[in-house]
Amino acid sequence: MALVTLVFSGVASAGDPSSSIKITGPKSVQLGTTIQLKGSGYTGQATSVVVYLDVKGQCAQTAKAQQGKALTFGPFSKNKKLNFPLPPLTPGNPPTSLGKHTVCAFLTGPSAKKTYAHAGFSYTVHN
Questions:
Q1: Nearest to 23 by CA among 112, 104, 88
Q2: What pTM does this model have?
Q3: Which domain does 73 fall in, by range?
Q4: How many CB atoms lie within 10 A of CB 54?
Q5: Would strands 34-42 and 3-8 be described as parallel, antiparallel, or unpaired?
Q6: If we measure between CA atoms, which residue out of 66, 35, 55, 65 comes closest to residue 100?
Q7: pLDDT at 112
Q8: What is the 3-state secondary structure (H, E, C) of 10-55?
Q9: ω into residue 110 within 30 of 0, thus cis?
Q10: pLDDT at 59 over 80
Q11: Are 103 and 89 in contact (CB under 8 A)?
Q12: Taking a C-beta distance cutoff of 8 angstroms, is the pair 46, 76 a contact?
């Protein structure tokens, strides 16, 4: 099984210009491929990262508005560079079907009540 890597790296996106997160990776993934996600960015005033691995459609503007099952990482110190691994996507987790898949990430305050930055990345699963 091939290993494909998606990388999060810093780019400002929402309410706090000092907070940043960006998602990059392959635009096309073969069905059955294990994907290892990695995250990075800059916290600014944020203290947590909330990630949605298989969003239907586009990412919401805030973590509170996003629908689906979330993974939360943190707490992190404010004004720090972030690097963190995410669990691999394996059978039983996305991507398990053909078509478009989207990953959404949010830098948030306590309890995801405020979103400081957000990013989304879409890829297509093919045979």
A1: 104
A2: 0.79
A3: 3-126
A4: 16
A5: parallel
A6: 55
A7: 74
A8: CCECCCCCCCEECEECCCEEECCCEEEEEEEEECCCCCEEEEEEEE
A9: no
A10: yes
A11: no
A12: yes
Q: Do 54 and 102 form a contact (C-beta atoms < 8 A)?
A: yes
Domain tally, the chain:
1
**Which CATH number is 89's domain given?**
2.60.40.10
- How far apart CA 113 and CA 108 sit, in angstroms, is 7
Closest to 23 measured CA to CA, from 46, 39, 42 = 39
Instruction: Report helix, strand or coil for 82.
Output: strand
At 103, give phi and psi (nearest 5°): -110, 130
Q: Which of 103, 107, 109 is nearest to 89 (CA)?
A: 103
Helix/strand/coil for 112 = helix
Place of tokens 């830098």: 107
Q: What span, in angstroms and rounded, lies between the C-alpha atoms of 63 and 73? A: 13
Query: Residue for token digits 């997160």?
Result: 21
User: What is the per-residue pLDDT across 70-88, written as a single tens digit (0 to 9) for each?
Assistant: 888 889 899 999 877 767 7
Beta-sheet pairing, 99-108 with 81-85: unpaired
What radius of gyration, in Å, describes the C-alpha atoms of the chain? 14
